[in-house]
């Protein structure tokens, strides 16, 4: 037998003769890892995701630019496009720098509301005063992560209203009516949500007032300030059909 037919290093047969060398198996390559994230989507959905990300990025850049222009000193851009900047920011994104003012507020201001409710039996009932600021304070007290709405929605709405109305409660400037509508919609929403009487019927009118109380000085101070609240009473506001029907809930 030729040397080409047998391999002395191959496996041995039962009789001790040399066996035939077995063919070697090809090396095994690991399978490619599965695609994840956007790469796992089909091309059509990848295009949609890319467009959505582009829209979000553009909106974020525009918002940052609008905030910067609202805080920057008067310039050519703000003079030409001031109305567009205000419409973008007010009232939801209005900036408030009172926290860093040299003379911080030394008063506690509470926003209170009452309503005239038409009941299902056609009667009309006037609710008592509801302290919305106290409700927000109770929700924040002891809460490690209070929401932005609980901390700022009502407070900023009242600041916005006070800044755009005179001492006679008449609007000053073009934003006065907008601030009144914004505050009214917030208090109506809160009444429908939290006031039992308001939920028994349909709110027809609301009246808002603020209660301002001076922050008392520390015990070691000789300063004396009044601790009696000062009220600012708004007239009764009639609701629109959408508001009365609960369209702001």
UniProtKB/TrEMBL annotation:
Pfam families: DUF5819. Keywords: Membrane, Transmembrane, Transmembrane helix. InterPro entries: DUF5819. The chain crosses the membrane at residues 49-71. The keyword Membrane applies. Residues 1-37 are annotated as: Disordered. This is Uncharacterized protein. It comes from Streptomyces dangxiongensis. The lineage of its organism: Bacteria, Bacillati, Actinomycetota, Actinomycetes, Kitasatosporales.
